[in-house]
Structure prediction request, 517 residues.
Amino acid sequence: MFCREQVAQLRDALPEIRARGAELVIVGNGAPHFAAAFREDFALDGPLLVDPELRAYRAAGLRRGRVEILSPRLPLNAIRALRSGARQGAVQGDAWQLGGVFVIRPGGALAFRHVSREAGDHPAVAAVLAALAPDAPPIDENVAPPRAQVWLGRALGAFVDPFILGSFDRTGFRIHALRFDPTDLDVDLAGRRCLVTGANSGIGFETARALADLGAEVVLLCRNRERGEDAVERIRTETGNARVALEVLDVSDLAAVREVGDRLAASPVDVLVHNAGVLPEARIETRDGLELTFATHVAGPHLLTRMLRARLEESPDGRVIWVSSGGMYTRRLALDDPQWRKRAYDGVVAYAETKRAQVVLAELWAKELADTSVVVSSMHPGWADTPSVASSLPRFHRVTQAILRTPAEGADTVVWLAASPAARETGRFWFDRAARRTHLVPFTKESPEVRRALWRLCEKHARGEKPRVPAAKQERA
Amino acid sequence: MGIAKRLASIELSDPDGAAHRLGEYWSERPVVLVFLRHFG
Prediction:
């Protein structure tokens, strides 16, 4: 209804638009046959395009309707889907996607931008025509979220956050996203080199893709060459950014980190994302004699950060991001048996312990780099539907599937920390673009001695003081 | 600003299935680019 009104207005203004030497280009998000009917209905003779995957909508920073969050149907649907063990089906088109209007000058300068805040929120045609004057100053309309919406997002967030459910899940993302400012990611990362570990799937892939989309040079650090090459190809095709490359690296292998780290340090480094993660069923020991989650989440990333430190310090806006997990809230940093030589192995505990260690290590690195411009952050992505979650936690995945976030939603805060000028506070732990507490219960607080011991332990492994064990490294997926 | 640059490389189809690179529309003249909420 509202859309028709807008198109009718613009169609009537078409002669004036063309008299100013401009063209009217219309993009819709439905299926092509809807577009064909639409073109006939309105007797449009200008370009009309379809974007069912919402790629251009996303690139343009357009909003999704807030009705979605307020609608009681979303939680009810989620509960029903949870009960039946089914996943919600995709809807035809995207009922919640909002639109917008842009005036783009030859060469790509943005002269006018109106980002719809709700259905029926359209710019005045006169304002659009005025922006077509070659000397008109650029105008932004409704780009920042309305204050009432930010307030609502904060209030709802404060309400759901203590419950985990409704916060870590997709509903939580939508609630928290109410206070996101879309201009935060209105950045051009051309000239910035970003490294992402574990980038061939899930949150790492979405992070790499989003950074490439913002114009950055991106290096994917992946264990498996074939899967890494597939990911590079996909990102190049989908973003049109050719400056996407692969370095094969198993971050749990300290010798490999030394070798690849040397090579990576031959060029500038602006962003380093420690995303690679594992959750093994049984204890696996690496060639360095380290337990696998400790090597992958802690020792390897620490060494890589150390090797790239000088490059990050040279960057005008260096950033290091540790992708931790909400599971870290359950464990205290303990270094009695970090390699699991005395205890019966429990992969979930090993995972949570090393994710806790990442949060502490990020704080220690922030302190180490306090005199530089490098910003070090850790974050947790909430519960996202990634291949790792599906394979490592099959039961959790089956039960929660209907309420899991998309990998892109899980990656949102990683991208924000890597790219946004709004994220400049160092040494904090983030979730959904807000700094969070690192402890929910007093039991998990660590002592200053243990913190110092973690740094010493990482330094010891980084210096390679531990003798390498010749035992063959076990195969893993 | 980065938005036009990001949009420029995206290819979308017209209702007849032909692909168009968005940046081509503003290579020579200004463009009013309208994103609809949905068709009709």
Remarks:
- Chain B touches chain A through 35 residues (CB under 8 Å).
- Chain B is about 30% helix and 30% strand.
- Chain B has a mean pLDDT of 87.
